[in-house]
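User: Fold this, then the next.

Assistant: Folding the first:
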Amino acid sequence: MSILDRITGKKEPAKKTSKKKDNVLDMVKDDSGKAQENIVLKGDTGRAHRVLVNHHLSEKTNTLSSSGTYVFKVSPTANKISVKQAVESVYDVHVANVNILNIKGKMRRYGRSVGRTSDWKKAIVTLKAGEKITGLAEGV
């Protein structure tokens, strides 16, 4: 679109884009190894995306996930109640216990200058017996 087109009021024809359904995974493998199609995730999770930043994945959290305990990086303003509601709304599970830790940033050197990594908040979420979140503890 050129400047002259803007002045004369001409518009470009709309581009055709392929619209995929939101919150749908095309191919997901279940425990038996068979591929399932079109699994619909929860649509409206409210404020959960502001509370849960991402899941924390390490060897230690991977072993904890086998016992029904998951670790998340959460918003600095999050509390136990908001973390519990966010996990229950996003993953459709029942939370038994939530522990929260404030992790202080570490001092790091970059050549001559000294810096510091960011502080962050960690939430350790324990689910009720027999429940688990699929897809979080894979990859380590």
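Now the next one, as you asked:
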Amino acid sequence: MNKAKNVLLIEDGPHDQFFFIQALKEIPNASLCDVAINGREALSKLENCATLPDLIFTDIHMPVMDGIEFLSEMIKSSRIKDIPVVVLSSDSGHIEMVRKLGARAFIKKTCDFGLLQKELEQMINEDFEDELDPQPFQTMLSPF
């Protein structure tokens, strides 16, 4: 089994939060460490927490600070810039932009619980830390 990972979710939609959290609960080596409803709240939590998450999942479209602005700010912080980020969004029009900003993967939101769980588990089990063998940017554009 792969190393257990703590996950931060940045998502403003209560339904999407619930769906993600339920899918994450089915993954044995993953735990939710926190939820933020926008990028600004996430940056504040990340800068002030004692233990950083191993992986961040973020939506793109959120009020106050969206996922793209979050990624742009995150890479400026020496404390948090190396945390792998997976974009989880229904908007696949920004894939190239989030890749350039350092996101490690893109998962298109789905209403299929099993598919979401499978894709989350794949990201949880990905070894983003292996710098000798960097993984290419992954895109999962599953249909709704």
